[in-house]
């Protein structure tokens, strides 16, 4: 690969390239059509898979087909009026409800951390390094994931070199890119120390126990309690978190890794954060995305039958 191709490829995320390749293969091999194609060809493709694939998947396929045509110097057939009308028709005929992770309730966060801390203390007393490492990692992962509102892939990409923590003060995380950072300009995320459920102390405790000086913050741990040096996989977070919640006596099936992000947004909204402050803290670029994470029942305050009581941690 020459230098130019190296930088051109670096400008597109590997996951995007992989999904685009799969979309092109689906169109040519599974569907049995040819490229370049026309707007009419795209319409027939959409008609065939409208009741088999989700609308989001179909739109991702269209993005891949559009990219292929543009890079090869052909007109983009996905911009055809018939294609746009087809997408509208699919949305009408096959309406789908957007699935959202349940927000992690603050009382459940407290219960999970209380259980993890008690298990870590017990492991320390009996000299069980394997359990101590696992529980300290879990405490840090859950508290940082919640209070910073990180996605699973962002937690997986945190590195010791790009994290600075001052006990009792603040913790800073630098990520070279995020989902909303299309230009890969990088961003620093800051979180203050708290009087309870503190992410700063949780991180320091984890780094102290693990002895990490470089590499991923949240590394895989083998059955003997050894750190692998490799970051956890984002897809492994859901079973990991559910195991933690189950052992802590919580309804684990409710939650996914996104529950921490949505839980923080719900907590912040209930405690008076306006939407712009929330967007700036979490890193959302548009209000529509932010509002999907905020539990609308909080708008009714104490009148809501199932409202969650406000819990401030800076008193």
Walk me through this protein's architecture.
The chain is mainly α. The chain has 2 domains: 91 residues, Tyrosine recombinase, N-terminal domain (DNA polymerase, domain 1, Orthogonal Bundle), CATH 1.10.150.130; 198 residues, Intergrase catalytic core (hpI Integrase, Chain A), CATH 1.10.443. The protein is built from 13 helices and 5 strands. A 3-stranded antiparallel β-sheet has the order 1-2-3, covered by helices on one side. Helix 6 runs antiparallel to helix 7. The C terminus is likely disordered.
Helix content: 40-55%
- Percent of residues in beta strands: 5-15%
Record field, number of beta strands = 5
CATH superfamily of the largest domain: Intergrase catalytic core
* Order of H and E elements: HHHHHHHHEEEHEEHHHH
- The rounded Rg comes to 23 Å
Quaternary structure annotation: single chain
**Low-confidence spans: pLDDT under 50, at least 5 residues?**
307-315
The CATH class designation of the largest domain is Mainly Alpha
CATH topology of the largest domain: hpI Integrase, Chain A
Molecular shape: elongated
* Average pLDDT, all residues: 86
Main sheet strand line-up: 1-2-3
Strand count, sense and closure of the main sheet?
A: 3 strands, antiparallel
Tally of contiguous helical segments: 13
Q: Roughly how many Å apart are the termini?
A: 57 Å
| Second-tier CATH architecture of the largest domain | Orthogonal Bundle
* Category by helix and strand content: mainly alpha
InterPro entries: CB, DNA_brk_join_enz, Integrase-like_cat_sf, Integrase_catalytic, Integrase_recombinase_N, Phage_Integrase-like_Recomb
Pfam family, one: Phage_integrase
Domain Core-binding (CB): 1-73
GO molecular function, one term: DNA binding
